[in-house]
Amino acid sequence: MKNIDVDKLLHDIFADQVSLDLKSRFEEKIEEYGVTKTKALKLLNVDKDVFEDIISGTAKQPNLIHIVKIAEFLEINVDDFIQLVLKNQNAENIASIDRAQKVRFLMKNFDVKALTKLGFFINSDDIDELVNRVLHYFGYDSIRQFEVELVTPLYSKSKRQFSDKMKDFWVKSAYQTFRKVSNPNDYDRERLKDVLVKIKPYSQDEKNGLYTVCRALYNVGVTVIFQNYLPTTHVRGATFIVNDKPCIVLTDYLKRYPTVWFTLLHELHHVLFDFDAIKTNQYHLSDDQDLFLIEEKANTFAREYFMPRSHFEYIKSYIKNDYMVERFAKENEVHKSIVYSFYTWYQKELYDKSFHAAFNKYYPSCKVAVSKLNPITWDEASVHETSEKIKAVFEIN
């Protein structure tokens, strides 16, 4: 007996796809085998009343062994026989099966407690309410549709799902958003390279810089969205390949403005140089398992882009001079916080010195920078609704 698809089973029960008169079938078989009913049940070691309850569909808790034995005697596929038995179950028993399926679906896929704390779920123990929230958010009518149309295409190539349910939720939300946004522009690698060399000065504009760059990237076929960080995921960003087009997710991990720009350039390196490798896996999460050994190259690229080591060697003597850092940042067309951020990294990397909290006052929040991108904050009604807002941002004339 193969694994039972409960969703399909329930659908088939109500769709009336399997129909067979079991009593007539039993009469045919005992006649064919030349035995009486009593003899047949004795050989099967099934009590007469139990048999009648199963065959008539009135058994409240049918014994699986009895079902298998009777199905074998009647030469009926066990899955079909179970369906026939369930078809005659009362509404209460059918509802309990439906509920078990929903509980399995929620427990397997979602950290209900964490998502409730985050505001995605309302504080409720109503299983129907929780399942409906998930299905509506992702745009599906049933659990089966969710699993066939979202889970299967997303994980069929990678053959892996995360044990961290929050990370899995984050991935599914991003993937579904990219599919809904469906960037109409063709991906053009050469045009992306043209855009790339012009990005740096926009980091100086906290309010509109990131928004302007993301619109330019959308125009060359690269979709960038922003999803709020989810607890326990430890992901700064990710690159997806959806419909043969590169898509980037940024998140507010660490909440710092320079981190968002660093992550964007990191992911753009993946788009330019790791497209085929990522395509085989559908997506790549930065800071996750480095399955293709591509993380350090992307980090180096982003670092060299904004502040190569020669710049660090110059500014390190003046790092406590606010005026000098300000002027240095302007001359190099980067936001001042990026200078402090990379100075801190070089000090740790080269001299094992920690300046982790030394320049916190120079790090603006990324909140203003991402606000125009319609960030996904997890209290939206649906991915469809969010995607429409994101498309409106990118496609406005």
TrEMBL record:
Domain HTH cro/C1-type: 54-81
Domain of life: Bacteria
PROSITE patterns given in the database record: HTH_CROC1
InterPro entries hit by this protein: Cro/C1-type_HTH, IrrE_HExxH
Protein name: ImmA/IrrE family metallo-endopeptidase
The species this protein was found in: Sphingobacterium bambusae
